[in-house]
Design goal:
Low-confidence stretches: none
Strand order of the largest sheet: 2-3-4-1-5-8-7-6
GO biological process, one term: L-methylmalonyl-CoA metabolic process
CATH topology: 2,3-Dihydroxybiphenyl 1,2-Dioxygenase, domain 1
Number of helices: 3
Organism: Aquibacillus halophilus
Shape: globular
Distance between the termini: 16 Å
GO molecular function: metal ion binding; methylmalonyl-CoA epimerase activity
Keywords: Metal-binding
Strand content: 35-45%
Protein name: Glyoxalase
Structural class: alpha+beta
Radius of gyration: 15 Å
Number of strands: 8
Largest sheet: 8 strands, mixed
Length: 139
């Protein structure tokens, strides 16, 4: 199955300072900014575009339960995950299962932009957090 880079998620402590850097220095365009209080997300998210490529800035909104807060506490701020767009998430999950790659079942969700996503188990990806996603309603 074809895969392409969809976006890179970056964990930040202060979304305002991070936005200023990305918009001023890297000349990124702010596409959207929103807050998700869903369990397992609990983050403020800013979607930026630089020459057609996307970056998501992720700032925790709950320093106790947010997975982004946990990530920053353990590893510091910086690249949190790499997201790959797949043609069909269900088929990609079947392929992963055949290959013995586990996913984090509780991370399966549809975000505000209609992106279906799930995270692969970092124990099976050499420690990198990888997201698989598709956009079933957008072709």
């Amino acid at each position: 199955m074809n895969k392409s880079l969809d976006h890179i998620g970056i964990a930040v402590r202060d979304i305002e300072n991070s936005l200023q850097f990305y918009q001023t220095v890297l000349e990124a365009k702010l596409i959207d900014r929103y807050r998700s209080d869903a369990i397992g997300v609990e983050s403020e998210i800013a979607i930026l575009e630089i020459n057609g490529e996307r970056i998501e800035l992720l700032a925790p909104t709950n320093n106790t339960t947010s997975p982004i807060a946990r990530f920053i506490k353990q590893k510091g701020k910086g690249v949190h995950h790499v997201a790959y767009r797949v043609e069909n998430l269900d088929m990609a999950l079947d392929e992963l299962k055949e290959q013995g790659i586990r996913v984090l079942e509780d991370s399966l969700r549809i975000n505000k932009h209609g992106r279906r996503l799930i995270y692969l188990n970092p124990a099976d990806t050499e420690g990198t957090i990888i997201e698989y996603c598709d956009y079933p309603n957008f072709g």
